[in-house]
Amino acid sequence: MAKIDLNSDLGESFGPWPMGDDVAMLGIVTSANIACGFHAGDPAGILKVVKEAAARGVCIGAHVGYRDLVGFGRRNMDPSSAELVADVIYQIGALQGLARAAGTTVRYVKPHGALYNTIAHDARQAADVIAGIRAVDPALALMALSGAPVVAQARAAGLTVVCEAFADRAYNPDGSLVSRSLPGAVLHDPAQIAARMMRLIATGRITAIDGTDIALEAQSICVHGDTPAAVAIAGALRAALAAGGVTLEPFARGA
């Protein structure tokens, strides 16, 4: 029987400004990428989400990003290695403290937004993120873009890497994500999204935006929590997976 992890980016509300429906998503996903305050999230809100995840048995990971609240971490940046390594350590440490207070544990790291896309192919920034993770805890897994050079780079450095596919994002023929600035980059139809993910699990392949058929390794599927139909998309996907005999479970043991 096929198994897959279903993850979402949560804890991104800031003060009185809500972002997504974290409670509803925690009833659907098996892993939660929790904002660490650099691209989104505030301590009280993050702690609330972590407590809810712990109560539901949802695995949590540190969703580390560039120091970019205004741009929601989606603007390209070029910090020095000293800065980036320290920023990664700082964010993981912050979430570890909140997780301990909530009676749970941080199991993995998933870079956010522009940082995620940059380290997919930028060996220097990838090395910095890897170094930051290893400095805190080499047992932490790295969630990364399937097929990107960072996967082999992180594995060579001794990290466990979880390859991720995006349910609600369009792909370029080279396996990279279509820029959000382009039409069709974000998918919104729950039925279409569920069907393409079921095909991916069954065949290991997905259709790129130009119609090209590409291969993707995936141990986890992401549904973005900040899209308007996030809960409907995640719910439809979970229902389709269950109907197809796919077991949903967190990739990180002991979650």
UniProtKB/TrEMBL annotation:
Biological function: Catalyzes the cleavage of 5-oxoproline to form L-glutamate coupled to the hydrolysis of ATP to ADP and inorganic phosphate.
Similarity comment: family membership: Belongs to the LamB/PxpA family.
Gene symbol of the encoding locus: pxpA
Protein name per its UniProtKB record: 5-oxoprolinase subunit A
Record HAMAP family: PxpA
Pfam families named in the record: LamB_YcsF
NCBIfam families: PRK05406.1-3, PRK05406.1-5
Gene3D superfamilies per record: Glycoside hydrolase/deacetylase (3.20.20.370)
Reaction(s) catalysed (UniProt annotation): 5-oxo-L-proline + ATP + 2 H2O = L-glutamate + ADP + phosphate + H(+)
Cross-referenced InterPro entries: Glyco_hydro/deAcase_b/a-brl, LamB/YcsF/PxpA-like
The protein's assembly and partners: Forms a complex composed of PxpA, PxpB and PxpC.
Keywords, ordered alphabetically: ATP-binding, Hydrolase, Nucleotide-binding
Keyword Nucleotide-binding listed: yes
Enzymatic class: hydrolase
Domain of life where this protein originates: Bacteria
GO molecular function: 5-oxoprolinase (ATP-hydrolyzing) activity
Keyword Nucleotide-binding applies: yes
The EC number(s) this enzyme carries: 3.5.2.9
